[in-house]
């Protein structure tokens, strides 16, 4: 039995949340996935079981992902930070190490800024929310503001599994040779189809509400000098979504933090180099003590 064979369905902040758990000893760790077609059992499929040998590992499907449906209303950064506080209460975790990818990394970073007393350590893997501008800023903002565009994108992805596969194969460093590729694709296609069934947009509110026409409305970089929790920044050397300059700026701004670049890895390091990510997280968390 693996961590994802059984789960607990919770109610958190008024909505459904699916939670997975493994490991009986060691400090607690909460893994937070990214946006769009990510799920807990997808992104962390090989990372969570390995971490559970030395940690009490918790994985959740964030709202509007995986088994955490349906949700109503706006689920932006402000909401998700409050949600994370409620989630830790529901999981009975007064203090926890946070490991987040992409949206999950940005959310974990923002939460660590707000509630450092509840975060024993932070591993931000290619986090979103870092930097004042993105490529094609205005064009992206216009697309996000086009009525119906995001739901049309959802329908397009849900009905074209071959397109989802090609997109994943292109983004993964090993391409068709990626271990467990068929399972990775299957979970992403299932997520696209679930989004269509529930009438959800292709992108999360956390992403869309972060964009302004000329600059990002969500940029954590100016706040990082007051980040007080031990922090490890991780980026794949072939990541096309989060730049090396942004990550270097984050590491320079956050006192005492460290940046590691993983070779032969793209945006989802846990797919391309899961063993190396486990090693980095394990070594980083080893000296930390969580009551």
UniProtKB/TrEMBL annotation:
The record, for SUPFAM superfamilies, names: alpha/beta-Hydrolases
Q: Which GO terms describe its molecular function?
A: hydrolase activity
- Sorted UniProt keywords: Hydrolase
Q: Which InterPro entries match?
A: AB_hydrolase_1 (IPR000073), AB_hydrolase_fold (IPR029058), Carboxylesterase_BioH (IPR050228), Epox_hydrolase-like (IPR000639)
Q: Which residues form the AB hydrolase-1 domain?
A: 27-272
Q: Which PANTHER family match?
A: HYDROLASE ALPHA/BETA FOLD FAMILY, PIMELOYL-[ACYL-CARRIER PROTEIN] METHYL ESTER ESTERASE
This protein is called Alpha/beta hydrolase
């Amino acid at each position: 039995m693996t961590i994802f064979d059984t789960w607990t369905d919770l109610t958190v902040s008024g909505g459904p949340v699916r939670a997975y758990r493994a490991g009986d000893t060691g400090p607690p760790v909460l893994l937070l996935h990214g946006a769009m077609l990510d799920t807990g059992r997808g992104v962390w499929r090989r990372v969570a079981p390995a971490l559970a040998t030395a940690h009490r590992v918790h994985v959740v499907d964030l709202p509007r992902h995986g088994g955490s449906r349906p949700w109503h209303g706006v689920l932006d950064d402000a909401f998700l930070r409050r949600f994370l506080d409620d989630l830790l209460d529901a999981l009975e975790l007064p203090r926890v190490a946070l490991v987040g990818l992409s949206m999950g990394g940005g959310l974990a970073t923002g939460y660590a800024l707000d509630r450092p007393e509840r975060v024993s350590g932070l591993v931000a893997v290619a986090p979103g929310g870092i930097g004042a501008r993105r490529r094609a800023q205005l064009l992206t903002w216009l697309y996000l503001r086009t009525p119906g565009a995001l739901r049309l994108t959802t329908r397009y992805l849900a009905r074209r599994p071959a397109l989802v596969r090609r997109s994943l194969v292109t983004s993964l460093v090993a391409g068709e040779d990626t271990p467990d590729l068929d399972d990775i694709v299957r979970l992403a296609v299932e997520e696209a189809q679930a989004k269509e069934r529930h009438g959800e947009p292709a992108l999360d509110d956390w992403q869309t509400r972060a964009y302004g026409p000329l600059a990002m409305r969500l940029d954590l970089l100016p706040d990082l000098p007051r980040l007080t929790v031990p922090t490890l920044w991780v980026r794949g050397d072939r990541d096309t979504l989060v730049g090396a300059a942004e990550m270097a700026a984050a590491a320079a701004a956050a006192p005492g933090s460290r940046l590691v670049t993983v070779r032969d890895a793209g945006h989802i390091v846990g797919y391309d180099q899961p063993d190396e990510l486990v090693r980095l997280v394990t070594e980083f968390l080893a000296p930390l003590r969580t009551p």
